[in-house]
Write a structure and sequence with these properties.
By secondary structure, the chain is an alpha/beta fold. It is built from seven helices and twelve strands. A hairpin with an 8-residue loop joins β7 (120-127) and β8. It is globular.
């Protein structure tokens, strides 16, 4: 059985206790909470997640360990979460990152959600301003099911495995200075490492609606993101066709009768 580890970039204790903590207790996972060193200075999410990945490695990490990267205002609603994710990673060793909503194309507009429904995948329960987990809107972004031709999944809830982290997965806290495009950049990093990204039918609740989109910080991050990957000779729109999946070795054992 794999060990479960969860990395959460923390800002608010009450939010964590209301949303993330109850569902994580049901899963039975080790939680790594990444706080700011100075409560008056908020480190960006790239640095927090980078610190989280380094911490899980230092505390012992097996290839089959399942590592959840999630926001503190996410609640895992799916009672079959463990069964689904363990089956997925077992049956699909080429998959390195899993999300619940995403897209199979990234355009010059930036956001993964800025596509038609034919390019979007998955569904999610979106919270309301005055409600908890029992109040929310069911947002169907696109087709619901299992898809492993996506180029990006939403960063509020992502799952990877110890093997990918040990092979060098990291958040780029050298280029980015804000809190935007960390999910897009991580996804392309996973694809460049030779793994696939999957969108799976795992239902979660997410309280935040991401109202900071299109502000100056978001636009700066978009430019940083596009410049980085264009300089690597990838071309917009980014799709999985531009990345090569590494060969997964398998061993055939003949049983003597």
């Amino acid at each position: 059985m794999p060990n479960y580890k969860c990395i959460i970039p923390r800002l608010n204790d009450n939010t964590f206790k209301q949303f993330a903590e109850p569902s994580l207790k049901k899963i039975g996972t080790q939680v790594f909470q990444i706080y700011d060193n100075d409560k008056n200075v908020h480190e960006n999410i790239f640095k927090k997640y980078s610190a989280g990945l380094e911490t899980v490695k230092q505390n012992g990490l097996n290839d089959t360990d399942i590592v959840i990267l999630m926001h503190e205002d996410v609640f895992i609603l799916d009672n079959l979460f463990k069964e689904k994710i363990e089956l997925l990673f077992s049956e699909k060793p080429e998959v390195g990152l899993v999300g619940v909503v995403g897209a199979n194309e990234l355009t010059e507009r930036g956001g993964w959600w800025m596509n038609g429904s034919d390019k979007l995948k998955g569904h999610i329960i979106q919270g309301q301003d005055d409600g908890g987990v029992d109040k929310g809107n069911h947002l169907v972004k696109g087709a619901i099911g299992y898809f492993d031709n996506v180029v990006c999944v939403d960063g509020c809830f992502m799952i990877t495995k110890g093997e990918v982290i040990k092979n060098g997965l990291k958040f780029d806290d050298d280029i980015y200075t804000g809190n935007d495009f960390y999910d897009c950049d991580l996804c392309l990093t996973v694809l460049e490492m030779g793994y696939k990204i999957a969108c799976a039918d795992i239902l979660i609740f997410h309280q935040s609606r991401g109202m900071g989109v299109f502000n100056d910080a978001w636009k700066t991050a978009k430019d940083q993101f596009i410049n980085k990957w264009n300089n690597k000779s990838y071309t917009l729109p980014y799709t999985t066709n531009q990345f090569k999946v590494k060969e997964i070795k398998s061993e055939i054992i003949e049983l003597a009768l």
